[in-house]
Amino acid sequence: MKKIIILFTLFLSFGGYSQTISNPNNTYKKRVLESAEIDIISSYYSQNGDNAAVTGGIGTEKLTDVATDIVISIPLNDDDVFTINATVSAYSSASSSNLDPFDLSGASRNGDDDDDDKSSASNITGSPWVASTGASKSDVWVNGNFGYSHSSNNRNTIVGANINFASEFDYISFGFGGNFTKLFNEKNTEINLRANIYLDTWKPVYPTELDSYLEANQNLNRGFFSTIDILDENGNIIDKNGTNVWSPYNTTLVNNTKRNTYSLSIGFSQILSKRAQISLFLDVVQQQGWLANPMQRVYFGDRVNYYVGNASNIKNYTSSINTDVFQLADDIERLPDSRLKTPIGARFNYYINEFVVLRTYYRYYYDDWGITSQTAEIELPVKISDKFTLYPSYRYYTQTAADYFAPYEQNVSTSEFYTSDYDLSKFNSSQIGFGVSYTDIFTERKIWKFGLKSVDFKYSNYRRNTGLTAGIVSLGFKFIMD
What we know:
With 482 residues, the protein is mainly beta. It has helices spanning 2-21, 94-97, 208-215, and strands spanning 37-48, 63-75, 80-93, 138-151, 157-168, 171-184, 189-202, 258-271, 276-289, 297-298, 307-309, 325-327, 331-332, 338-351, 357-367, 372-379, 382-383, 388-399, 427-439, 446-447, 450-464, 469-481.
């Protein structure tokens, strides 16, 4: 924290120093930012699907998220701007709740084993299709980003720096970076560079059966397992002292809690004519550390299955009619400890007339896990009055599967790496959006010392061919201080 305060002090001190020497001839110079601005964006997101990663590639993916993002931009002088960006996101996830599908009390969190309180085997049920009452069903993600930028007198050079902090119950992230922008050819050509480093730390939590098994020193007659019946594939209660018993395939869990990300972005923008502009970009992202998610189960097709709950529903396990039996995990997701991601893309914008603008976007992505993807998007803002603009949009996405992905029960234990996370599967998706924007350049409407500059409303509907559907609605306001 002391380091952060020192950085802020340096930013402010540099800003004050720049103000005194940046314009020694006292000639007029337009400020980079005339006055303080506040952007507030709130959104509501909802999704549903049947391929939850926490329960091994099957089960409910129902999730809701409410988020608010506030960006405050403060001019320090003619040339320097300080920016604060804070985000709070609160979600509720049926999938994440099944980190402990047997939780009846809602008490478990952060690896604490509260399952010992379940005193009767007949009371223990669970299902990948039913949300548990465990504490992992909801959480709050918070993020703070602080940035500083300095523009040269001729506004052809911009340099900036930023620091970032984010946290949720099982993950902490700290990042920092810088950027450089150069404009040429009477500002018709722009080149920008951006570099960022994120130093993240897991506070790993695991599926409750794996965590409980290790806490009991791999003894099925102790702790959580001492009070419950374990069923074989035929629904028979197993002898916990016998030779055919459930046990995790790999009892080594997260052995490296670090995840570091290094990214470099290069961008080029060119005004082609009075009506057309094109932008190109290339990103190189290197990740190292524990890149798998310790919450996510994997089931192997070459191992015997074991269950807890209602024996009669084992035959319905992969169907949503199963509400009271749960399969014990074979392992957690295992992935390589490095990943190189390289997206490259372009934007092309064309001014058709004073009422309509065409905006297009294309991106090709490749990584060394075997995923390639393509994204194409088109947006068509239509100005219907001096203050109102409508902007319909369409986005199409397609990707190949990672080398390590297989659906539920199709991974094999002889593999080094494996996952059943459908975000790493082969799929395509489409997203249709519609928005409306209100702009008042004179900020006639006031709230205290701030004038309302714009209001934006947007709704998007998202669908994957795997069955996942989602919708998001957002509302944004921009205020400018008088």
